[in-house]
Write a structure and sequence with these properties.
It is built from 6 helices and 12 strands. It is about 20% helix and about 20% strand.
């Protein structure tokens, strides 16, 4: 399981702001959040950073590579409670008792409200984890708004880590759950950038990259948090700062290999924060749900 989240700052100009077991798991869960800040410039702090890697290194790594792998963001107690909540809602969604899903074989919305048969892959995601009717909502909210996540978000957005008022400048966008398809049916997303169409020409691609990620920095954060050992995210480091190569443009949409690509290998509790316009894809291994995998 893996949780996916995206967060944004309330300014529109990024320049103005200084996811273990031996067998397949039923869910690949990640949180995706987008935060934004109302300030026009980053605030400064002389206190120690919120995590072991200093803010400058976190942001510099994100700007250089387009992603940051942070080990052990969650502790074992958090992992256990989130696994329980995620497994429960996944069971409901797979059996048609939760309508907000991502269904195989669709890559993009609109999504159906009824899951396909398990033999055809079923679902690969559960949406709206903070919906008032969501079972386990309190556990998801505890993670989403918790210090472990918000601390990194604030660092990457240039907000003061130790000023509680800075959290008022953050906009929380979404939180979803990514899960393994059923019926032993693997499911793969094509290579893509989240916010730039794949069919744009080089000139337009360059313009949009510079507009959306000036200097390699965005006005939002996006992340995956693994609840089990996970290797579903594949990225091309550095591709968020350049137009695509001819190989990337002409490759099969789901090509298993691209030059320089990296599989992000996460242990349970790890997180990866990444630029939404890095060239990337998702690869989700199918499981046999009837056997309890």
């Amino acid at each position: 399981m893996a949780l996916a989240s995206r967060t944004i700052t309330t300014t529109s100009d990024p320049q103005s702001q200084s996811q273990s077991q031996s067998q397949p798991q039923p869910v690949t869960t990640f949180l995706s959040s987008h935060h934004s800040s109302k300030t026009s410039a980053p605030t400064q702090t002389t206190s120690k950073p919120a995590c072991s890697t200093c803010p400058t290194h976190l942001l510099n790594s994100l700007k250089r590579d387009g992603y940051i792998h942070i080990p052990s963001l969650l502790d074992p107690v958090q992992i256990s409670s989130l696994r329980k909540a995620s497994t429960h809602i996944t069971t409901l969604a797979r059996s048609g008792q939760w309508p907000y899903i991502r269904a195989v074989p669709k890559h993009l919305p609109p999504w159906p409200s009824e899951p396909p048969p398990d033999s055809e892959g079923g679902i690969w995601g559960v949406q709206h984890l903070l919906h008032p009717d969501m079972p386990g909502r309190k556990e998801f909210a505890k993670l989403y708004f918790g210090n472990a996540v918000i601390g990194v978000v604030k660092e990457l957005l240039g907000l003061n880590l130790y000023d509680p008022r800075s959290e008022e400048k953050i906009v929380m966008e979404l939180l979803n759950l990514l899960v393994s398809p059923t019926g032993n049916k693997d499911f793969e997303l094509r290579w893509h950038r989240d916010d730039i169409r794949w069919d744009v020409d080089a000139e337009e691609e360059k313009r949009q990259l510079e507009e959306k990620s000036p200097g390699g920095r965005q006005a939002h954060t996006q992340y995956n948090i693994a609840l089990f050992d996970d290797e579903s995210l594949v990225v091309v480091p550095g591709s968020h700062r350049r137009v695509r190569t001819e190989e990337e443009k002409n490759a099969d949409p789901c090509a298993p290999e691209l030059e320089g690509m990296k599989v992000v290998k996460m242990k349970a509790g790890d997180a990866v924060f990444y630029d939404s316009n890095i060239v990337h894809r998702g690869v989700y291994k199918g499981v046999n749900w009837e056997k309890g995998e």
